[in-house]
């Protein structure tokens, strides 16, 4: 008897770098197709999609805090992105974001790296 997989509800966050107003939507749509393909194969259900567009890192961080709030409220189980480098400035920033998601009780999933977590006991 196999273990039944539980579907994880997530917010898909689309963020691209080096984009202009003309090509940002096309790049984000391409990224969304990539995320959806991964989600379909791994029992992940995308319940909301947030787009960064060409907005700065302050907006990105504010959107990330809103996603953390959605995890804390129980609206979603986690966040899915293509890769952490697209939503983090440094390695320290990436670890902080993963830690924030884990502390909120959620999953931080990247298509390129898989599920990220911090197996620390506090």
Structural description of this entry:
This protein is an alpha/beta fold. The protein has one domain (8-116): 3-Layer(aba) Sandwich (Rossmann fold). The chain is 39% helix and 21% strand. The protein contains 3 helices and 5 strands; from the N terminus they run βαβαβαββ. A 5-stranded mixed beta sheet has the order 2-1-3-4-5, sandwiched between helices. 26% of the residues are buried.
In short:
With 122 residues, the chain is α/β, with parallel strands linked by helices. It has helices spanning 24-41, 57-73, 91-103; strands at residues 8-14, 44-51, 78-81, 107-110, 114-116.
Please give the count of helices: 3
| β-strand number | 5
- What is the CATH fold-level name? Rossmann fold
Biggest pleated sheet = 5 strands, mixed
How would the blueprint of this fold be written?
Blueprint: E1 8-14, H1 24-41, E2 44-51, H2 57-73, E3 78-81, H3 91-103, E4 107-110, E5 114-116
Parallel strand pairs: 1-2, 1-3, 3-4
Antiparallel strand pairs: 4-5
From the structure above, extract its key features:
122 residues, alpha/beta, 3 helices
